[in-house]
Design brief:
The protein has about 725 residues and is α/β, with parallel strands linked by helices. Among the domains are: about 260 residues, 2-enoyl-CoA Hydratase, Chain A, domain 1 (Alpha-Beta Complex), CATH 3.90.226; about 180 residues, Rossmann fold (3-Layer(aba) Sandwich), CATH 3.40.50.720. Helices cover about 50% and strands about 10% of the residues. An eight-stranded mixed sheet has the order 12-11-10-13-14-15-16-17, sandwiched between helices. A six-stranded mixed sheet has the order 1-2-3-4-6-9, with helices on both faces. Strand 1 and strand 2 form a beta hairpin. Helix 5 packs antiparallel against helix 10 and helix 19 packs antiparallel against helix 25. The longest helix has 21 residues. The protein is globular. The two termini are about 50 Å apart. The relative contact order is 0.07. The structure holds (S)-3-Hydroxyhexanoyl-CoA. The site of (S)-3-Hydroxyhexanoyl-CoA has 24 residues, from strand 5 and helix 3.
Length: about 725
């Protein structure tokens, strides 16, 4: 037995099995074997009456070790779970913290389940493109009923201890020391027979109170979602099986389905996405800042769409926030915007009126700079105008307490410009949110030349506290996220001039897996938003390739959904995009004016034109050290731009095509279209080695010297 991952002790006739694999006790090799051996030993030991299964530290088991997928396992969770259930002495699950996936499945096989108030229970396998494979699809419906089981398995969500108790998922909530409590219960039930085996229950026993059509309803709901994944359909089929076949047959079917899914393209991509996001949070050279270092109060300067969205993100995360506006009218509009966002959530039953009041109470309107000076962090979120931002940072420098984070939500302006307006450039960084800021999960943390590692670490931790994926980038035009997407936008506009239509391109991207096409997205954010940036770029660069079609539409007053016409037309406040002949005409006029030959495009050419352009740019970004790693770009695209998660991310997808094939095409387009397609040296290097783009990292010399570690200067309360 591997003593490092499993330990055993006997306390007053109770055998206590403790699993240990910090930080979350994922099921490492040796753990399942240890469970089987120790349950057997306890059964054979006359000095033991009952058994407790628990996890070391503050978690039970967060599931199978995701790194082990695709590798051969000597023992599977279904075997170790079966060994627990077959024990002749009762096994009590004692759960704290995360009790997920294979962890919950082992608990389901126990004869009694106890959790602390802090426990989080769930079967998140669906998020990894797989289904539970330790008997979870068969035992969970038998324990809590098919409808509740379907909800947990299909959503992958976590239930807290109170909900788990109400569902019948656990038997008791522990008070005091968990293991002592569980051992006491184990002694109490040691002689009770027959043992309560979850497999012996019938799912109908609990489900017959529910509508028998639940399975059909789940099938229809899944069909409406049009998920490209196989796992949801299989999960429904397996819960249906729990209602009609015996547990062994159900578990055998579960095993077959899991074996099919484990190495599917979608499951591999989703596992990659999980680790890309975890890695993106890491800043080379620093460990995670200690929990006590967090931002406990914040201020937002600007109550427009972004500012109010950011304020909501803080209030939702339980962090008090002040919202500063220049005039009482603007402040009133900002607060109304916030209220109407919460009202919409109440209408959709995502929030109760009481929760809304609680959150609104965390948002304090402010009209003077002095009143925000005591906050741990301030985020400037005003128009993209350099003079305005410099003025604001000058004022923030005067009022903010020492050590406060001075952050800007700018999406393109050089962080150094704002930093220079202060006497504390080390405390200045970008915290770039994506619209709507309270919904989108990306928070791009941007380093200026003088930003300290301490500031970056704290800003990234702040993003995580808001439930975001924080990804660090270097300061350059568009930073890493928007800069890597900009070539996609350019190509989609130029394709129009060559003969493609917006709705054709949108369909290609939606078929690829995006929830919305890029033109429909542009209508949502407003065509006018990037108009000024394009003018600025054109003025700065004589070689800048103007994008005539969007410019012309903006000049015609077509700003998108907000005024009923953009790339599409919209009728009577209906958000359905409808193709518009006016747009066809504008495109045709421009093609004629500039003498651009027209042709037809295949779906594949459209997809490759858009995404290869961004892959090439992403390589340049990594090469220049504006991102630590190529996988950070994937974390950004997944969380900021709605890139289909089952495709892993831009660079992961690129590797599925292969770097050599992409380079070949980029070179061909370079010859045809000129310098905007100049191949990145990194792309050429990786293609030459037939390597993986997603594994590319920035040369240390490009990024790290700017991040000189400095002693922590921030104030603690
Ligand atoms: C399963 O169980 C299948 C079964 O049905 C049967 C199979 C045969 N594996 O996120 P954090 C690492 S499928 C490996 O920063 P948090 C994570 O990478 C599995 N590693 O903390 C990180 O490492 P590092 C079902 C894992 O508090 C560290 O732990 N389970 C795993 O914000 C801390 O993680 C899941 O899908 C894992 N399973 O969130 C749960 N879990 O420090 C996946 C975590 O080197 N995990 N790590 O960067 C999560 O959702 C979150 O990590 C969790 C903690 C909520 C647990």
């Amino acid at each position: 037995m591997n003593d490092e991952v499993v330990s055993y002790e006997i306390r007053e006739r109770v055998g206590i099995i403790t699993l240990r694999n910090p930080p979350v006790n994922a099921l490492a090799p040796g753990m399942r074997e240890g469970i089987i051996d120790l349950v057997k030993a306890a059964n054979e030991d006359p000095a033991v009456d009952a058994i407790v299964l628990t996890g070391a530290g503050r978690n039970f088991i967060a599931g199978a070790d995701i790194r082990q997928f695709g590798k051969t396992r000597a023992v599977t969770s279904r075997t170790s779970a079966a060994a627990i259930e077959a024990s002749e002495k009762p096994v009590v699950a004692a759960m704290d913290g995360y009790c997920l996936g294979g962890g919950l499945e082992h608990a389901l096989a126990c004869h009694h389940r106890i959790a602390t108030p802090a426990a989080r229970l769930g079967l998140p396998e669906i998020k990894l493109g797989i289904i539970p494979a330790g008997g979870g699809t068969q035992r969970l419906p038998r324990l809590i009923g098919a409808a509740a089981a379907l909800d947990m398995i299909l959503s992958g969500r976590q239930a807290g201890a109170d909900e788990a108790l109400a569902l019948g998922l656990i038997d008791e909530i522990a008070t005091g020391d968990l293991v002592a409590f569980a051992a006491g219960v184990a002694r109490r039930i040691a002689l009770e027979r027959p043992l309560r085996k979850t497999s012996a229950l019938t799912a109908w026993r609990t489900a017959d109170r529910e509508k028998p059509e639940i399975i059909e309803m789940a099938r229809q709901a899944a069909a409406r979602k049009k998920s490209p994944l196989k796992a949801p359909g299989y999960a429904i089929e397996l819960v249906a099986a729990s209602l009609s076949v015996d547990v062994d047959a159900g578990i055998a079917l579960e095993h077959d389905r899991f074996s099919e899914l484990e190495d599917s393209d979608e499951a591999k991509a989703l596992r990659y996405a999980f680790f890309a996001e975890k890695t993106a949070g890491k800043i080379p050279g620093i460990a995670k800042p200690p929990a006590g270092d967090g931002v406990r109060s914040a201020a937002v300067v600007g109550g427009g769409t972004m500012g109010s969205g950011i304020a909501i993100a803080f209030a939702d995360a339980g962090i008090p926030v002040k919202m500063l506006e220049a005039t009482p009218e603007a402040l009133k509009r900002g607060m109304e915007r916030i209220r109407s966002t919460y009202d919409a959530r109440i209408r959709r039953k995502r929030l109760t009126p009481a929760q809304m009041q609680e959150r609104l109470a965390r948002i304090e309107p402010a009209s003077r700079y002095e009143s925000i000076g005591d906050c741990d962090a301030v985020i400037e979120a005003v128009f993209e105008r350099v003079d305005l931002k410099m003025d604001i940072f000058g004022k923030l420098d005067v009022v903010m307490k020492p050590g406060a984070l001075l952050l800007t939500n700018s999406s393109a302006i050089d962080i150094n410009v704002m930093a220079r307006a202060t006497k504390r450039p080390g405390s200045v960084a970008g915290a770039h949110f994506f619209a709507p800021a309270n919904v989108m999960k990306l928070c791009e943390i941007v380093a200026g030349d003088a930003t300290t590692i301490d500031t970056l670490g704290r800003a990234a931790a702040m993003g995580r506290a808001l439930g975001k994926i924080s990804v660090v980038a270097g300061s350059c035009d568009g930073f890493a996220a928007n800069r890597s997407r900009a070539p996609l936008v350019t190509e989609m506009m130029l394709l129009l001039e060559e003969g493609a239509l917006p709705w054709q391109i949108d369909k290609v991207m939606m078929d690829f897996g995006y929830p919305m096409g890029p033109f429909a997205v542009s209508d949502l954010s407003g065509l006018d938003v990037s108009y000024d940036t394009r003018k600025r770029r054109a003025a700065a660069d004589p070689d800048y390739r103007k994008l005539h079609v969007p410019d012309r539409l903006v000049e015609m007053g077509r700003h998108g959904q907000k005024n009923g016409a953009g790339w599409y037309r919209y009728e009577n406040n209906d958000r359905t995009p409808r193709p518009d002949a006016v747009v066809n005409q504008v495109i045709a006029d421009i093609a004629r004016e500039f003498g651009i030959p027209q042709r037809e495009f295949t779906d594949e050419e459209i997809l490759h034109r858009l995404l290869f352009a961004s892959v090439n740019e992403a390589c340049k970004i990594v090469d220049e050290g504006k991102s630590f790693r190529a996988s950070d770009i994937d974390a950004m695209w997944l969380n900021g731009f709605g890139f289909p998660r089952h495709r892993g991310g831009l660079m992961y997808w690129a590797d599925c095509i292969g770097a050599p094939a992409i380079l070949y095409q980029v070179q061909a387009w370079h010859e045809r279209y000129g310098k905007r397609w100049k191949p990145s040296p990194l792309l050429a290097l990786v293609a030459g080695e037939n390597g993986r783009l997603r594994e590319a990292v920035a040369p240390e010399t490009a990024f790290l010297p700017a991040l000189v570690p400095q002693p922590s200067t921030h104030a603690t309360k």
